[in-house]
Amino acid sequence: MKFRVSAVQYHLHTIQSFDDFARQSEHYIRTAEEFEADFVLFPEFFTTQLMSIGDDQGKALTINDLPDFTDRYRELFQGFAKQYNMHIIGGTHVIRREEKLYNVAHLFYPDGRIAEQAKIHITPSEITGWNMGAGEGLQVFETEKGTIAMLTCYDIEFPEIVRMAKAKGADVIFCPSCTDDRHGFHRVRYTSHARAIENQVYVVLTGTVGSLPTVDLMRANFGQAAIITPNDIPFPPQGLLAEGELNNDMIITADLDLDLLYQVREKGSVTTWRDRRTDLYPDWE
Predict the structure, then answer these.
(1) Does pTM top 0.90 for this prediction?
(2) Which residues form the CN hydrolase domain (predicted)?
(3) Residue 268 CA to its chain's centroid (Å)
C-alpha cells in the first residue's frame, strides 16, 4: 500500500476576515491536490490566525473567542475534504467543552466524516497562558489508506503514547506542531525521529511559520515540516523522505510505502518493535 502525503508550513500573518483564512487554507489544499496528495497536514494552532481579525474596536481576539469559529472551521474543512477528495488533518483548533478549552486535532474524511483527537499532554505555557485542558484518551483512525494516529506537538515527546498508538495499529503518526524557538522545535523534531525508530512507523510533522504580532503567545514561530521514516536500508539514510526550508511558507510532499514498514518490522537491520523486552516493561498491545 502506497499513498501520498503533503505537510503545510502554514504562514501566520494578520488577516482581516474569515474569508482571508479560508482562501489561504484552500491555496495549500489546491497545491496538495496538484501533487495528487491523499493526505494533507496543517500545523497545530494555525486557526489562531483568526484571532488577528480583531473585534469592533480593532483589538485582537483572545483564546476564549477562538471556539466561536468552530462551526465555520469544521464546515469549511469538511467541504474542502469532500471537494478535493482527500483526507485533511486540519491542524488543531481550540474548542470549548463544559467551559473548558481543549486543543483538538481534526481529521476530515473525503466522505464528510469528522474525527477528533484532543491533545493529551499540555505544555506549561498552554496551562498558564491559556488554561488549556488535557485530552483523556487516545484513538487511532481507520482510513482507506491505512490506520493513522494524530498526536499533537508535545505528545510526540512521550514514548508511551506513541507505543500505544502503534499497539492499536497505527502505521503513520501525523504530528501537527507549533513551536516558538529553536529549542522547542528541536525537541519535537528529534523525538519524532526517535518515535519513528522505536516503533517502525512513519511520522509526518509540520509547524507554523510567520507571526501574529497582536496575538498573545503567537508572536514568534519557528517551524519546518518533515516526513520521517525508520532508519533502515529501504529508507533514506537520515530517515527523511522530505523536509521543508526552515521558517518558509511552503508545502512538502512524499510517498509512504506501508509494505516497507512491514518488511523492516519482520527482517530489518533491527527489529525494534518485535524486540521489545515486555518481560521487563509494559506491553501496550
Answers:
(1) yes
(2) 3-258
(3) 28
Q: Could you report how far apart the first and last alpha carbons of the chain are, in Å? A: 23
Using the structure block, give the residue that is written with the C-alpha cell 537520515: 238
What does the alpha-carbon distance between residue 79 and residue 113 come to, in Å, rounded to a whole number?
Answer: 10
Point out the residues that are catalytic. 44, 119, 153
**Secondary element (H or E) of residue 5:** strand 2-9
CA 216/CA 96 separation, integer angstroms: 19
Give residue-wise pLDDT tens across range 160-177: 999 999 999 999 999 999
Closest CA to 132 of 143, 115, 119: 119
Provide DSSP, 264-275. HHHHSS--TTTT
Block means of pLDDT (10 residues each) for the chain, 285 residues, are 96 97 98 98 98 87 97 98 98 95 98 98 96 96 97 98 96 98 98 98 98 94 98 96 98 98 96 93 78
**Residue-wise pLDDT tens digits, 93-103:** 999 998 899 99
| Residue 166: C-alpha distances to residues 14, 132, 170 (Å) | 38, 26, 5
In the structure grid, which three cell numbers stand for residue 153, read together?
A: 506537538
Q: Output the nine-digit C-alpha cell for 1.
A: 500500500
